[in-house]
Amino acid sequence: MATQQTVPAGAAQKPSVRPTNPRFSSGPCAKPPVFDLNKLSDAPLGRSHRAAPGKAKLLAAIETTREVLGVPADYKIGIVPASDTGAYEMAMWSLLGERHVEMVAWESFGAGWVTDVARQLKIEHTAHTADYGKIVDMAALNYDHDVCFTWNGTTSGVRLPSGDVIPADRKGLTLCDATSAAFAMDLPWDKLDVTTFSWQKVLGGEAAHGMLILSPRAVERLESYTPPWPLPKIFRLTKGGKLIDGIFTGATINTPSMLCVEDYLLALDWAKSVGGLKGLIARADANTAAISAFAETHDWIGFLAEDPATRSNTSVCLKFTDDRIADGAGFAKAVAARLADENVALDVGAYRDAPAGLRIWCGGTVETADIEAMLPWLAWAFETEIAAQMAQA
Ligand SMILES: Cc1ncc(COP(=O)(O)O)c(C=O)c1O
Which stretches of sequence are listed as region Disordered (predicted)? Predict the structure, then answer.
């Protein structure tokens, strides 16, 4: 942790303006600006989630998700346990094994799905991976196989620019972990058979609840294929060879938190009030543009994403590029600590498995004014830390 004593005399002046909200975590992400605990008072607490008020709330969460994200009417949307991890694991364990799988990863969460397929499911697959900052060539994959990938690499800040290269007439299924993409990026539903995300990400909802979106072809696979391994109850999407339809109308597999449901409904309402998906994308783009402008005028910092077309507009990952920095990881940690100590940017250190640097969440719940107020503090923290290190050298 940086301390006052390490700041040499004559170091940079502290900026005078602070962000109103210093929360730039990449998950759980900042609550919508209108959030207030008192607004959750309509949650049917202490009631069964299977009673009419609870079921109505769950169905509203599903159908408002469909409305805001533009999910086609013939796609199924379910609320499932264990957040995005639960939703994605459930999909992999229920659907894979019917054919060869192309496992695609360009950062640690995608790499985790590759490990699952290789070491847990132990199915025939080909791994396609790229280092942090780079992306896999999605055009080079065989889409007659199933394809598992993560749309936005939360820990590298590298995202798929579009789904254009995914063929419409593919024979395999595409399984997309879209947890830090949904509500911030355009997702081409016709190219995605399984899409998952968690409430705690882009809309700033609560943890532990995941969303599973299935195309008609994914449902067809579920109803025609039974994996050879046992499936725990928490993963089971079919009964007697038929999709359990209730899961997709609000009859959840197990008990959800109605407080979290109410919170998600509030976030969805706010999303609609800022122009729905278009408005959310514009807000994330504006936040990212503010950081781009800063990076262009400060030669000591740059994006981890090498190709600007792949730069995320949610999890913006930055690296320090100043030659005077001897210990990259120590330096980045010290800068993040200075920002946290000043309460101007919380939780902005790079992910533990990612290259040293900073990760600043830019999803729509973050106000551009707060990003703009934080950036001079980043310059202050950088200059102060450089001065401290030079003084020690
Ligand atoms: C791409 C990606 N996948 C999966 C996860 C895990 O999400 P959760 O903790 O909501 O299950 C995260 C969390 O940051 C993520 O960024």
Answer: 1-30
Ligand 1 atom nearest the C-alpha of 180 is: 16
Which residue among 180, 347, 353 has the greatest number of ligand 1 atoms within 8 angstroms of its CB, and so is best to mutate?
A: 180
Q: Which residues pair with 102 in a beta bridge?
A: 126, 147
Nearest ligand 1 atom, CA 207: 10
Q: Which amino acid is at 133?
A: G
- 83 in ligand 1 pocket by Cβ < 6 Å? yes
Alpha carbons 358 and 335: distance in angstroms, whole number: 9
Q: How far apart are CA 373 and CA 57, in angstroms?
A: 37
pLDDT digits 0-9 by tens, 147-175: 999 999 999 999 999 999 999 999 999 99
How many Cβ atoms are within 10 Å of 178's Cβ, its own excluded?
A: 29
How remote is the C-alpha of 234 from its chain's centroid? 23
Ligand 1 atom closest to Cα of residue 27: 14
| Distance in angstroms (rounded) separating the CA atoms of residues 227 and 363 | 37
| pLDDT in the model for residue 393 | 79
Residue 166: partners with Cβ closer than 8 Å, 6 or more residues away: 138, 143, 147, 174, 188, 191
Structure tokens at 286: 């504006």
Determine the distance separating the centroid of ligand 1 and the alpha carbon of 84, expressed in angstroms: 6
Domain ranges of the chain: 20-32+276-392, 37-272
pLDDT above 80 for 4: no
Amino acid at 386: I
The verdict on domain 20-32+276-392 having CATH code 3.30.870.10 is: no
Mean pLDDT of 338-350: 98
Which letter, b or e, does each residue of 138-159 get, where b requires 16 or more Cβ atoms within 10 Å of its Cβ?
A: beebebebbbbbbbbbbbbbbb
Measured at the CA of 315, the angle between CA 156 and CA 1, to 5 degrees, comes to 85
With a 6 A CB cut-off, is 154 part of the ligand 1 pocket? yes
